[in-house]
Write a structure and sequence with these properties.
The chain is α/β, with parallel strands linked by helices and 213 residues long. The chain folds into two domains: 1-100, Formyl transferase, N-terminal domain (Rossmann fold); 106-213, Rossmann fold (3-Layer(aba) Sandwich). The protein has helices at residues 12-22, 42-48, 64-77, 94-99, 120-127, 162-185, and strands at 2-7, 29-35, 53-55, 82-85, 104-108, 131-138, 148-155, 189-192, 195-198, 209-210. It has an eight-stranded mixed β-sheet with strand order 3-2-1-4-5-6-7-10, sandwiched between helices. Helix 1 links the parallel strand 1 (2-7) and strand 2. Helix 1 (12-22) runs parallel beside helix 6 and helix 5 (120-127) crosses helix 6. The protein binds 5-O-phosphono-beta-D-ribofuranosylamine.
């Protein structure tokens, strides 16, 4: 599986995928990193390990469809057959999503379907939920929707702030994203309507991470 990783910023999740690839734990190859933001820190992470990176700047396109088409071309040019969104801050249009149906996944810093969109940690704290975490899901046209592949959970502590929560959730993201990619690359993830079935998953009795790789 040849992956294209789409980013907009610091790229710590991209780094977790790179790290997994470097130690042979990804079962896939990151063939391209594409950012819509020229200054994105993740671009340097890619170039440090010799992964081709490109900027497709959304500001240079009048229409979203044209931006999406430029992304599509860059991905195809790099021989990509699967796309990982990793902090990519643009909404992809219907055509792109349909062209790449079941071949685009996203990581989101909440337990979907709770807290779609931005400021997830502030909103989790405001809502007084006791647990939060991250979700890896297939991308559909609606924001932060689509069959859920993996979720990882952590408790919210009495003194948590949006910042402390963001830091702990991010650590969880870095473990979960490479695991999800690996499961897909190994052909163990099957979409079944709105849900995902995992083949040969070893399920743990630890309620915080279900299932494990
Ligand atoms: C992560 O919290 C991810 O879940 C969200 O955007 C953030 C990106 O962080 N979609 P990074 O650029 O991977 O460090």
């Amino acid at each position: 599986m040849k992956i294209g990783v789409l980013i907009s910023g610091r790229g710590s999740n991209l780094q977790s995928l790179i790290n997994a690839q470097l130690v042979g734990q990804l079962s896939a190859e990151i063939a391209a990193v594409i950012s819509n933001v020229p200054e994105a820190g993740g671009l340097e992470r890619a170039s440090k390990v010799g992964i081709a990176s490109t900027v497709v700047n959304h500001r240079q396109f009048d229409k979203r469809d044209d931006f999406d088409e430029a992304l599509n071309k860059a991905l195809l040019l790099a021989g990509v057959d699967f796309v990982c969104l990793a902090g990519f801050m643009r909404i992809l249009g219907d055509d792109f999503v349909n062209n790449w149906k079941d071949r685009v996944i996203n990581i989101h810093p909440s337990l979907l379907p709770a807290f779609k969109g931005l400021n997830t940690h502030e909103r989790a704290l405001e809502a007084g939920v006791r647990f939060t975490g991250c979700t890896i899901h297939f991308v559909r046209s609606a924001l932060d929707e689509g069959p859920i592949i993996l979720q990882a959970v952590l408790p919210i502590l009495p003194d948590d702030t949006p910042q402390s929560l963001a830091a702990r959730v991010l650590q969880l993201e870095h473990k979960t994203y490479p695991t999800a990619v690996r499961m897909i690359a190994e052909g163990r993830v099957q979409i079944d309507g709105k849900c995902v079935k995992i083949k040969d998953g070893s399920f743990t009795s630890d309620p915080m991470i279900i299932p494990t790789d």
